[in-house]
Amino acid sequence: MRNRLIVITGPTGSGKSALAMRMAGEIGCDIISADSRQMYREIPIGTAAPTADDLARVTHHFVGNLSLGDYYSAAQYEDDVMRLLPSLWEKSPVQILCGGSMMYIDAVTRGIDELPTISDDIRRRAWELYERGGLQQLRLTLLELDPVYYREVDLNNHKRLVHAIEICRQAGVPYSSLRTGRVKPRDFDIEMIAVDMPRDTLFDRINGRVKKMVECGLIEEARAVSHLRHLNSLNTVGYKELWPYIDGETTLDEAIVKIARNTRVYAKKQLTWLKNRPHRLIISNE
Predict the structure, then answer these.
(1) What φ, ψ does residue 71 adopt, rounded to 5°?
(2) Which pLDDT tens digit goes with each residue over 115-134?
(3) What's the CA gap between 253 and 255, in Å, rounded?
(4) What is the pLDDT of residues 142-177, one digit of tens each?
(5) Which H or E run includes 176?
(6) What average pLDDT is seen over the chain?
(7) Residue 28's pLDDT is what?
């Protein structure tokens, strides 16, 4: 009987973490987090990181293991999870990976193409393009370096554009020429479970979650790290909407509305991604 990795995913706010906790308790296994922001120890409120009680009940991996200034990628995550799993199989032949970071889940379940390690200098210069010229400068640069990928990529996703430019410059060849799209074989079985619920219910939960985060200290948490807002780790929903408020340029109510709206937009992107991934759907009415 082969080892099995159960992947629990779904849109933000759908209750996948609660399901993972219940299942891990029943199975007697750990939880491997697949949330790219819960790794940063300085921002547990805005990332809805597991509580101290959760961590005491079930061992979690990749939660609070990085600082905001640390560089990390989906490729590193793939390597780290693959190295971790053999020791977890000794504890239980079934393990759980839970989260909503799409690239991280794909990294484990499908694998990532072999790409060059980006030097600090190339990464700095790629981000400087965005800081100086915004999306338009990134688009023009990518069009010159890799017109094939330019026609495929989401031209409004600055992270994807920066990443592609980094790869082109580091490898010296177009990023598209390195993308094989092949799924890597794994020596364990993978079962993907997606948690979803009626849209009105999901969006109400998202709105309630944002309100609860604010009540639990999200504003204070954001203030404490606002001097690091230039870091990619803080270029995320829940924080970037608060910078104008912290700078006195908008009201708190306006910032909260934007956080909830952008969180709903992100949830829709997660659902679109899921449509192209084999999974078993669980509809929750909680």
Answers:
(1) -85, 140
(2) 888 998 999 999 999 999 99
(3) 5
(4) 999 999 999 999 898 888 899 999 999 999 999 999
(5) none
(6) 93
(7) 96
Distance from C-alpha of 211 to C-alpha of 256, rounded to nearest angstrom: 8
Which residues sit opposite 4 in a β-bridge? 94, 189
Residue 236: strand, helix, or coil: coil
CA dihedral 138, 141, 145, 148 (to 10 degrees): 60
Alpha helices of the chain — where are they, by DSSP H? 16-27, 52-57, 74-89, 102-109, 120-145, 147-150, 158-171, 199-215, 218-225, 243-246, 252-275
3-state secondary structure of 108: helix
How many whole angstroms separate alpha carbon 176 and alpha carbon 152? 9
What is the rounded CA–CA span in Å between residue 98 and residue 60? Answer: 10
User: What is the structure's pLDDT at 148?
Assistant: 95
Write b or e for each residue in 121-143: b if 16 or more Cβ atoms lie within 10 A of its Cβ, otherwise e: ebbeebbebbeeeeeebbbebbe
Distance of alpha carbon 23 from alpha carbon 232, whole angstroms: 33
CA distance 162 to 257: 28
User: Are the C-beta atoms of residues 100 and 12 closer than 8 Å to each other?
Assistant: yes
